[in-house]
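Why should sequence recovery work at all? Because a backbone constrains its sequence more than one might expect. Tight turns favour small or flexible residues, buried strands favour hydrophobic ones, and helices have their own preferences. The token representation captures these environments compactly. In the example below, the structure is given first.
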């Protein structure tokens, strides 16, 4: 992968290869307000990663939680067929809804979503539905869509997230351009996480035929400028 080549040149904090290679980014955004399908980090109710402990360690998380605010719009991440209702709980509550979908050779379910319909098809980027009021049921949780493969395998075998590299860099150190770049727009790694605000800065860059993001970096300007290498 081309990004790998970059690795040797960079003295930078974090690179996201968002949009580097269309074939790598198979899954479009799932939720409005979360364009990079950011996964739910650990909160007091648990962690969003596949396999994370559940029920005091007696169970494990059989899906992947993608951050999504209550009431946000949930989109088809690729062209999908809707295969009917799918619900997470036996005992009903305010967020007990979802849909079974197939597309791209995958069968998966989305929970906590009120779909606009349970059958038919949708094109990538079209609205599937709306995130249900998760804060009412789990106050303080990071609201999210739960993605679960029908065979309960690891959804990250697909491309729900973009690939990133972490490059070691001390706090306060100057971040240099790895080659001539254009600053495209501001990019923030976190959504709705007030505690992370001090590091919630970054930018989208392009240059050398690549488009990528740097996170945890504060810039004087976020767009409309080109910078020379170094
Ligand atoms: C989802 O729908 C597909 C297609 O109808 C079906 O084969 C599959 O069993 C369903 N999966 C689950 C877990 O409900
Ligand atoms: C960016 O960094 C500054 C601190 O330098 C902080 O106040 C701000 O909340 C950060 N995040 C955003 C999105 O601007």
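From this structural description, the recovered sequence reads:
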């Amino acid at each position: 992968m081309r990004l790998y080549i970059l690795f040797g040149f960079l003295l930078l904090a974090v690179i996201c290869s968002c949009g580097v290679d269309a074939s790598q980014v198979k899954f479009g955004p799932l939720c409005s307000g979360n364009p990079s399908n950011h996964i739910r980090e650990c909160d007091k109710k648990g962690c969003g990663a596949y396999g994370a402990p559940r029920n005091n360690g007696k169970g494990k998380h059989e899906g992947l939680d993608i951050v999504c605010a209550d009431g946000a719009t949930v989109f088809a991440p690729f062209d999908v067929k809707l295969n009917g209702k799918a619900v997470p709980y036996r005992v009903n509550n305010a967020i007990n809804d979802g849909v079974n979908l197939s597309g791209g050779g995958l069968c998966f379910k989305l929970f906590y979503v009120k779909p606009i319909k349970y059958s038919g098809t949708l094109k990538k980027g079209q609205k599937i539905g709306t995130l249900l009021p998760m804060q009412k049921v789990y106050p303080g949780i990071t609201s999210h869509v739960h993605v679960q493969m029908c065979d309960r395998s690891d959804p990250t075998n697909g491309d729900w997230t973009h690939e990133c590299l972490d490059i070691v860099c001390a706090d306060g150190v100057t971040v240099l351009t790895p080659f001539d770049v254009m600053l495209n727009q501001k990019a923030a790694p976190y959504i709705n996480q007030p505690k992370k605000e001090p590091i919630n800065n970054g930018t989208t860059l392009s240059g050398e035929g690549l488009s990528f993001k740097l996170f945890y970096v504060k810039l004087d300007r976020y767009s409309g400028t080109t910078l020379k290498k170094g």
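A few observations help interpret the result. The domain at 2-22+162-227 is CATH 2.70.70.10 (Glucose Permease (Domain IIA)).
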